[in-house]
Amino acid sequence: MGLPSKSKPLQLKHFMSSSKFKPLAMNLGRLTINLSILETHLPKCKNLKQFNQILSQMILTGFIRDTYAASRVLKFSTDSSLSDIDLSLRIFNHIENSNGFIWNTMMKAYIQRSCPQKTLSLYKLMLGKNGDRDNYTYPILVQACAMRASEFEGKQMHSHILKFGFDSDVYVQNTLINMYSVCDNMRDARNVFDEMPVLDSVAWNSILAGYVRVGDVKQAKCIYDQMPVRNTIASNSMIVLFGKRGCVTEARHLFDELPEKDMVSWSALISCFEQNEMYEEALDMFVKMVANGVMVDEVVVVSVLSACAHLSAVHTGKLIHGLVVKIGIESYVNLQNAFIHMYSSCGEIMVAEKLFNAAYNLDQISWNSMISGYLRCGLVEAAKTSFDSMPEKDVVSWSAMISGYAQHDRFSETLALFQEMQLCGIRPDETTLVSVISACTHLAALDLGQWIHAYIRKNSLKVNVFLGTTLINMYLKCGCVENALEVFEETAEKGVSTWNALILGLAMNGLVEKSLEMFAKMKTRGVTPNEITFMGVIGACRHMGLVDEGRRHFDSMMQEHKIEPNVKHYGCMVDLLGRAGMLKEAEDLIESMPMTPDVATWGALLGACKKHGDHDRGERIGRKLIELDPNHDGFHVLLSNICASKGDWDGVHEIRGIMMQHGVVKTPGCSMIEADGVVHEFLAGDKKHPRMKDIEVMLDEMAQKLKREGYAPDTNEVSFDIDEEEKETVLFRHSEKLAIAFGLIAISPPSPIRIIKNLRICNDCHMAAKFVSKAFGRDIVVRDKHRFHHFKQGSCSCNDYW
DNA sequence: TTAGGGTTAG
Description:
- Residues 710-802 form the DYW domain.
- By secondary structure, the chain is mainly α.
- It has 42 helices and 6 strands.
- The protein has a domain at 670-796.
């Protein structure tokens, strides 16, 4: 920053190769240096020593005071690789009689070394000295502003240009167009362009490049069509723009029409296919490119490898690897990283690892690709080891590892790593937070989730589609409908997934009508529903037993939206019919399915049989199911429950035997509850909690109060052949009751008691929760495997239909 | 009397 670093004054000794003055190596002999000698000898300089000797001669003889001679020697210094920028600056500072050329040369030198801020500092110095600016000066300065992408500085420069009257210079105008384009200000770029009396090819190309940069297809096309001369670069840029904006047909057409296609034309089209998820086309095009003898470089190969990764085309990837080695470009870091990504995407993690270990020029992306590769292949531990040994971790590394934990259902570790990241002072970005919020959702860690929401607001992070959807989902899955609706309204960028989260979540919370309303609203807003939307919509109908409406939506999938119902949609319909007691219709629908029904579909019918007491149908289907899926614990349990409710204890024992035989273990009921930011977990019959004594006392109090209110335990739920009193004790140790008791102790009103259960809530716990909400005057929110139950004043939001 | 400035794609 600031002015170019102060250089030491130019003294003769700087240019002496030793303290002893030697005669010029270039045979200057005893000749006094003059212009002609300078001009013949400067270009012949082979090393810094020779250059220094000429320079020292000039100082010694005072010839450096000749402005023209000084400008030649400075120019040589800035252009030649023999000298460096510090020496150039020392020469520049030594020149007493400087002129515009000399200033321009020094300012240009900083541009060439990518130090535009030093160019601008020199300009300030020049202004102070009222230096000799000329029409060569401002193109350099405007370019410096463009390099800094600083519209503020650019505009200042523009006003100087007007003030000093350089605005009619075509070079100046062209750099202004470029500067405004780089700053994405196409309005001012266009103003300059429109006012140019004579447009040369640079002006056309610059304005086109601007429209391409901001992605304005309409204007770019307009300019391209009007261009008097179109070069390949212009055409290639248009292909790129079409690709970026999803106009694949136009890109392909333009490519076909090109009279001359170069390497960039081919790779622009290939990248267009790749970006628009047309991976086969990308590969085909690459094959044609090679067949046509077009040169291939590392940039195009990176695109093609990405296509291979998406297609899992490891064989093609290996062929390309061979080609890359043959043409000798394999050591490009980007290419190595693309190979690591391709191989790990195709499951060839060992190959990726070998490449990674063999590479000598690893960068941050290499490490991040390797970690993501391990995670993609499910090797979470290997990823963590690699992560721990990284020399430097950036936000991408942390996000990759955090999302890796989240995607492998290791939610506590997700949150722990997030905390560690913060301790390391790395600021999370939108991507990181999506994974963390998703972990909060699974763990029902609402406190942390809300903290993150506040963090997003405080740091004005952009709530993009993913983040918005994740937040809405979290609030709905934690039973906070109001908050979810608020985020939904605030989210500017709404995708189909955002609507889906809302439709599914509202229905889960028992707000079926609102959910269906949102579905209607979504369609009027022009958002096209997808198959997940219909899962939500039919699911909503299922929560309230809206059979006719559900059927209507199911039929509309094909008729209106051309979406073929999949096995899950059928399963959902079977569940809807079954729950409503239409068991025969449900079974008929299964028989009429165009695909093989999955176990979940039969399972839905089995559940319905249990609910509606159709024991015969239930037993028939249950036996079929445990054959189809002998490892599924839930079906065995349901079947055994059906036997139990018939009083068929032999059947119960038989099923138990089958379970033992297959090693099927019933998933224990588990409830989670968050108190003061800590998540507590309860298993059925659990006695391990540190506050178990208090909980026992509360359970007794609950039992007494509930009985007074008229609660009678529903012992039908217990499928053990034990007496009624014992059954009641078992019932009162269900995990959700333990959690409710704990909630009554640990969470002070009016905060609701929020519980998450891994299985579906049983009849008895549902009834008990209703009584507790009344007898203790507490709101209880239970999220079970399928939906929410908001208990308030003795009733539940599900209206006892679940 | 010399010398120097601008755009551009995958």
